[in-house]
Amino acid sequence: MRPGSRSLSFCLFSGAEALLVRDTDLVTEICPSPNHGERRGCERPDHLILHYTGMKTGAEALERLCDPQAEVSCHYFIWENGSIVQMVPENRRAWHAGQSSWAGVSDLNSRSIGIEIVNSGHDWRGEGDQLPDFPAEQIASVIRLCADLLLRHPILPRAVLAHSDIAPGRKSDPGEKFPWEALAKAGIGHWVAPAPLSAGVSYGLGDEGPPIRAVQALLSVYGYDLTMTGVFDASTERVVRAFQRHFRPALVDGRADFSTLQTLRNLVAALPSV
Ligand SMILES: [Zn+2]
To answer: What is the CA angle 90-65-74, rounded to 5?
Structure first.
């Protein structure tokens, strides 16, 4: 299916499911997914999770997100040309986050709105092993939709997150090509300018001691699910990589170098005090 090939429609889910109506006028198409349920312990979403589809084509991804066997879905799906599709009503629990954790919250599906952005991602790189770009018109729609959601839901800037932030051991999306800085300039998400790459102190796998515990503490304070063991283990490396993908995308190598640490310190220092 190509973008825009369906007319706008309303759809009655089978059984007791809700009538799907557009939650926002930004939606150009409705493509209902059967994969959703009741939110648990949370009436209003307070997190926003951004994904890339990670499949060869957007059409394949959309089909999978509607497949009852796949048991995955999202609230919104954004094509390369910026068309926005609604798949699950915002008051329902879509199944996009999977096993995940952030700042002590483990059922992110119950607490979030999920947006899938069409991009083939790490598994379908282009020439020269480059990650595919996100077209400008697509990002413009991401920004419009996020701004609209932030007006309607109690989502703090620091709760606008990558799938890789909440599931660093399993997920890499939306990836280091995703323009978080452009979103921040539009008032979406928490952000500080990344510290420039430079020589200097750098920690990696196998290092241990108080500096490693301090790095783990800062990542954990920010929200990442990490145990303060004082040992730079594989899970620490995965979290550092997730941090870099979001906040210091110039180099994603899983090493806590000076620039990564400085960016992390600045980010934590920029958190509101209440
Ligand atoms: Zn994802």
So the answer is: 25
pLDDT average, residue stretch 80-99:
97
Q: From the CA of 184, how far away is ligand 1's center (Å)?
A: 20
pLDDT tens column, 226-253: 999 999 999 999 999 999 999 999 999 9
Confidence of residue 19 (pLDDT cuts 50, 70, 90): low
CA dihedral over 246, 149, 188, 125, signed as positive or negative: positive
Collect residues with CB below 5 Å from ion ligand 1: 51, 163, 173
Q: Is 80 a catalytic residue?
A: no
Cα of 128 vs centre of ligand 1, distance in Å, is 24
Name the segment(s) of the chain with CATH classification 1.10.101.10: 202-269
The predicted model scores a pTM of 0.92
Q: What single-letter DSSP state applies at residue 122?
A: G
State the pLDDT at residue 4.
40
With a cut of 90, say whether residue 128 has pLDDT above it. Answer: no
Give the residue range(s) of CATH 3.40.80.10 domains in the chain. Answer: 11-185
Homologous superfamily (CATH) for 11-185: Peptidoglycan recognition protein-like (3.40.80.10)
Q: Are 96 and 109 in contact (CB under 8 A)?
A: yes
User: Could you tell me which residues are beta bridge partners of residue 115?
Assistant: 50, 76
Q: State in Å: Cα 71 to ligand 1 middle.
A: 13
Vertex 97 angle, CA 16 and 174, to 5°:
130
CA of 26 to the centre of ligand 1 (A): 22
What is the dotted CATH code of the domain comprising 202-269? 1.10.101.10
Q: What is the mean pLDDT of the chain?
A: 92
The residue annotated as part of the active site, out of 116, 176, 181, 208, is: 116
